[in-house]
Amino acid sequence: VSAPVDPAGTLAAARGGDRGALARLLTAVERGGPDARDIGRAAFQQSGGAYTVGITGAPGAGKSTLTSASVAAARTHGERVAVLAIDPSSPYTGGAILGDRVRMSEHALDEGVFIRSMASRGHLGGLALATPEAVRVLDAAGFGWVVIETVGVGQVEVEVAGAADTTVVVVNPGWGDAVQANKAGLMEIADVFVVNKADRPGAEETRRHLESMLDLTRRTASDSSWRPPVVLTVGTTGEGAGELWSAVARHRAQLEAAGTLTRRRGDRLRNELGLVIEQRLRARAEHLLDAAGRDDIERQVAAGDLDPWSAADQVLRHLDA
Amino acid sequence: VSAPVDPAGTLAAARGGDRGALARLLTAVERGGPDARDIGRAAFQQSGGAYTVGITGAPGAGKSTLTSASVAAARTHGERVAVLAIDPSSPYTGGAILGDRVRMSEHALDEGVFIRSMASRGHLGGLALATPEAVRVLDAAGFGWVVIETVGVGQVEVEVAGAADTTVVVVNPGWGDAVQANKAGLMEIADVFVVNKADRPGAEETRRHLESMLDLTRRTASDSSWRPPVVLTVGTTGEGAGELWSAVARHRAQLEAAGTLTRRRGDRLRNELGLVIEQRLRARAEHLLDAAGRDDIERQVAAGDLDPWSAADQVLRHLDA
């Protein structure tokens, strides 16, 4: 609906501090399609400097508040920080679960901070592809730190957050006792644990519970020298944000010293290639279905007159020719 | 690794009561590939009679116990019942979260009951495709009812359960207060709510909470005449299982009277066609990546020498030829 973006020129403007240009690039990336690809290519040449931190945890754990406090800590170190807040949409209504970014407003006037909410709507590759593309744009625009905040409810969101250089998993006092979705998945991606709302009862028990779970968890060989620290924070007051910042910095230093950072990033690029190929194929499938007569084929399948495999044969017939 | 399955013959044997034949068919479907396709085609001709019930809810909600109690209720009505217990695997370890099917053992000697655990490993189309394929086999094998039990933690599992004719969402007393993952998604797919472990404190409050959430939730137009009932059960004693059975039967009658059942099933078939096409293209992409020199291309991408889009171009170049 909007005019095509000139990738190189707009990227140069964004790099020069033009926040409108940066917003346009991210909108195009979020929408996906040829524009996103051209922007991705241009950004690819100029990226590689940013360090990404994923922050994930259950709804209500206080991720936004903690993100805001972390941004403040990063700013005291003079770092330019971008925040990408991923709003997963319900597959049923298309409505966003999150949306409350008000608490981030303390950084609204800071030129060194850029905050962006992102949904996956429209991007054929979904969040898994839209997120690294958006991070790359922020990287190329000169942000040294990119924080990716997601709600860790589903596998996709956990994967998105886990695709950062350092992944912070936020829990609350009492987490250990409650039956929680995807606990195993969160345990495995965490590089740093945060017990937020640590002024509430049970914070120390939760820390001990996490430590004993860490004792039991065998880390992957590549990370065997790193044991995720458990940091206690109170996001609303900023207490512990400095400690969290130090923990992330220590993890970064360890990754860099061990050469793990380069390998992790290479793995992520390889994974992204797979996703790009799938996205192209999905677009191709739509095209082929249209060309083969979508309405007629879908009607026959829905009526049970044609099985899905024979219908797929009809659609894909021209692919091998 | 095993010999190819003769679809028509094995299906006939399964229909005749050969449980080993049925197990072989389901193993082939779970593994995916050409065998699964041939079995699917054969089953497609003989299916359409089974009514599917999805049961989903958080880990620990008591779904297995409740499923077992529901099977017992169905058996008192003389129905043959198959249970498909979906074990989602962690993307990180490949280990199954569930596995405790011991409580279903009361039905082990009942010829009218067939129980099968299924993981998505190996099936290129994932759970979203493996599940309807397995249901179709059970349908063609003569089971009048198929219960699909999933852990409703992620979007995929919710979608799998929500792709049944009637979807039962299981919660426990206290659900209303706790911050729970994917609550909105569960609210939207539920045709029947169950408050299981209703002998615990807070069951009535949870029922009231659900009713008031239902007051607020706008149902989709197609289902506007159905308001999900809230049934209180104690899975371990079987209390309420008869009521649950009645609620499912009422929902079925309503779907059939309104013509909604046919349309829902048509929509599911259309969706399945899209998934089959994607699966085929994914296999094709793997083939093309191999042909184009996977190792070399992946190495260049991982090193940052080649961007993912240009790499995808190289891989997909021959698709249009």
Structure description:
Two copies of one chain form a homodimer. Chain A is an alpha/beta fold and 321 residues long. Chain A has helices spanning 7-15, 19-31, 34-46, 63-76, 126-140, 155-162, 183-189, 203-216, 241-258, 260-291, 294-302, 308-316; strands spanning 51-57, 81-86, 113-118, 145-149, 166-171, 192-195, 230-232. Chain A has a seven-stranded parallel beta sheet with strand order 3-2-4-1-5-6-7, with helices on both faces. Chain A starts with 6 loop residues before the first helix and ends in a 5-residue tail after the last helix. The interface between A and B is large, with 60 and 60 residues.
Supply the key terms.
321 residues; homodimer
Brief overview:
With 321 residues, chain A is an alpha/beta fold. The first copy, chain A, is built from twelve helices and seven strands.
